[in-house]
Amino acid sequence: MIARSWQRAAAFAGAWLAAATSVAAEPAPGQLLYNKHCLTCHQADGGGVPNMQPAIAGGTWVKGDARALAMFVMSGGFDSASRKDSDVGNVMPPFRQLENADLAAILTYIRQKFGDGGSPVSAEDVAAARTSLAPPAS
User: Fold this and answer.
1) For the chain, N or C: smaller number of CB within 10 Å?
2) pLDDT of 103-114, one tens digit each?
């Protein structure tokens, strides 16, 4: 009887441990937002889509100044219209509609994942960059 109770306890503990270790870690908010707004074009590995969307992994914009990166993303890429006929045929839409904190989370995620562990971007960095943007075209 004691052996049977011990077996049940061991089986229960094993099942609980298996269930507990199979739960994946929650993705960071920046990753969730990246998946929603950026993943389709830039892909999970940041490699983009050949001949369509540019890679961001290791890119100078990703590694560079946080405010410049925020301005770039909020404007849809500087001078996007002239790049439409480049090797990368599509143009990024502007993402100025995103809240400062959400854009900061996305930029922090891509800098840390695709920018060699770049420093975080704050909502204040994004807000400062936003003040430098030209008003949206009406």
Assistant:
1) C
2) 999 999 999 999
Long-range Cβ pairs for the range 50-54 (8 Å, 24+): 51/87, 51/88, 51/89, 52/88, 52/89, 52/90, 53/88, 53/90, 54/88
Q: For the chain, what is the domain count?
A: 1
Alpha helices in 23-65 (DSSP H): 29-37, 39-42, 60-63
86 lies in a domain?
yes
CATH classification of the domain holding 94: 1.10.760.10
102 part of a folded domain: yes
Comparing CA positions, the residue from 37, 50, 62 lying closest to residue 90 is 50
pLDDT tens, position by position, 73-132: 999 886 655 555 556 667 888 999 999 999 999 999 999 999 989 999 999 999 999 998
| Cβ–Cβ < 8 Å for 1, 70 | no
Helix (H, G, I), strand (E, B) or coil at 90: coil
Over residues 49-62, the pLDDT tens digits come to 988 888 999 888 89
Taking the model in full, what pTM does it have? 0.76
CB 103 within 8 A of CB 29: no
